[in-house]
Structures are given as structure tokens and as C-alpha cells.
Design brief:
This protein has five helices and eight strands; from the N terminus they run αββββββββαααα. By secondary structure, the protein is of the alpha/beta class.
Length: 181
Amino acid sequence: MRFRGPLIGLSVFMVIALAMTWLVYATLRREVAGSTYSYAAMFTDVTGLRDGDDVRVAGVRVGRVESVAIDGDLAKVEFQVQTEQPLYGNTIASITYQNIVGQRYLGLSLGKTGSTDRLKPGSVIPVEQTEPSFDIGMLLHGFEPLFSVLDPTEVDNLTDGVVKSLQGDTGSIVGLVDQTS
């Protein structure tokens, strides 16, 4: 019986599989390049923000979120930022949509008021200088009174008229104007 050929094949396969697994892990982990400073920010709402999400300044990735935790009735977000990226006393921290799927990132920008002194590593950005996560559910709940008054048949006719007019049916434009008025 010859075991040498299959054993070599299995060994090569295992080395390649381990290398690919490490590559996927390293890609998903998205470490911050270079040395970093740690900071924190206090928020009233951090819906959708997770450990490992990006920290960006002017859309450029400069760090990552390390942890999101409850601190009393607020949420404390601890994050790292590259040492080359200075943060100041007037820095505004906001939670922003990254994509249509709903992923978020922590955005940092300069505010108009406040100290222009550089923040020391380990500093905490107060809740007054943060902008919480946008809750689309609250927006949709704001339309509830309107939706409860509308007749479903009229809404269906209106959307049908919009679709037909966008498809180039000029006759439906007159009906669409009548329905909206």
C-alpha cells in the first residue's frame, strides 16, 4: 500500500486551506495600520454600530470601533484612531450609514464651537458633541397618521399612475394630476 502520495496531497491541501482561512480572517478583521490612540465618545443612541466598524474622518478610514457598551443611560463607544490623525476638543462624533444594508460607521468631524486644543489619548467626547444614530423606524412611524387616513385603493391607483407615467404613458399623467389634487 502506498500512503506517501495521498499524504503529500493531503498535507498540501491542509497548508493551502489554512493559508486561505487566515487570509479571510485577516481581511475581515481589518486592523488599523500603524500605531493608534484610544478615545471614547458618549451617545444617546448607537443603533447599528458594532465592534470592528470603521472610524472615518472625511470619508477616509482612520480607525476602528473597539467596543460599544452601556454606561448609565448612555452608550459609550471606545475606538482607536491612527496617531497621525489628530482629534481636537471641538470634534463631533456621529454615527452614519455606510451602505444600503444598514452598516454604520463612526464619523469624526470638526465642530464650529469648542476648544481647538488637541485631545489627549484616552479622552472622552461628551454627549453634547455627538450625533446619535438615525432611526428609520421613527421616520416611518411619523407617516402612520397619513397612512391610516388614506384609502388603500386610492394609494394603489396613485402608485399605478406614477409607474405608468414613468414608463412613458402620457395619458396616465392627466389621471395622476387629478389623483394628487
